[in-house]
DFFA factor (Notiomystis cincta), 172 residues
Amino acid sequence: KVLIDVPRSDLAEELVQSETKIQVLQDTLQQVLDRREEERQSRQLLELYLEALKTEDSILSKVAEPEAAPRKEMDVVDTGTSSTDTSATTVLSDQVLAALKEKPAPELCLDSQDLELVLKEDAAALASALGWDQQKAGALQEACDQELSKRLQQVQALHSLRSTSKCKKTLS
């Protein structure tokens, strides 16, 4: 990271190399950093996916219970939706709200769970919490949705690679 941030001319002078070679070096280093970030995000998405599978299993087991329990949960959901104005402040942490306000591309700074929380928020409540208009909040949610979709595609690609790898190992 330090080598990427150093001015090209200074680094070229220090390493006794041409600025073109230094540019290639800095580009390569940036690609390595980008790849590491993508790998980190992929691992994070895989963890989120596994957690979602566990949650899905617990939901399926609740469905097998008598019908009285789902009705109670429905009542709770119905009463909870009446307070949409406070949902943005109660669901999204101050840290997430600060990132949404201050970062030029906040969807890249948030982890996948925070992206999902932003997507679940009502656009009007999100706009109110951020002090923005509803159109800008909707655009932010769209950007978060696209980033989350990209991350999920990475997880699917990882699963595909792993299954391909397993198939090759069994054939060997």
